[in-house]
Amino acid sequence: MLRAGDVQCYWHFAHFGENFYLNFMVQLVTGVALDRHLSVTVNAPSGLIVGKVDNARGQIAFNAKETGFYQMCFSNFHNRFGSMQVFLHFGVYYEGQKEEEKNKKEEDMKQINNTLSFIQESSNRLQRFVFHMWRHYNYERMRRGADFYLLQSNSTYVNSWSAVQSLVIITAGYLQLYFLKRLFKTKPAEGDKPRC
Fold it and tell me: Which tens digit of pLDDT belongs to each residue from 93-105?
């Protein structure tokens, strides 16, 4: 939850050559100003900005050029009078292997068995695919949460305005009937018979 005009920062460690990713989405906005924009920056350990997004949802992904803690800052400066709930998912993954380790592993695997290397390579590939599938699942879960809050907000808005409009229609009908009755109402004279 980011309060009005608030800035929150988080840190995550990454080694050189690893792939860093950050997914975010504004799920709920409360308060007077309903601006869904969120300013997000990612800074390298040296302080340089490596990614910046100014939107309600976004993704920042890059290859880490330095080893250290990367800073992710979320700023709600667009909303001076409202807070927002943000879903975020971030992490680091490494697809390749270092050349020396790769060559050593290849020699060892040739000595042991080609079948074993094939099994390990397949399991590593499967693990990488499952990891990417999990990232996409989290992104869709984030979108589903934002849609739920939007649906809930729209439902409240429609229900309240429908009730107000129904009340206005009923009141207008009653007032029309009342004034029409008064228009045709006559007072009988003392000797006259009442009209049908």
Answer: 877 655 667 777 7
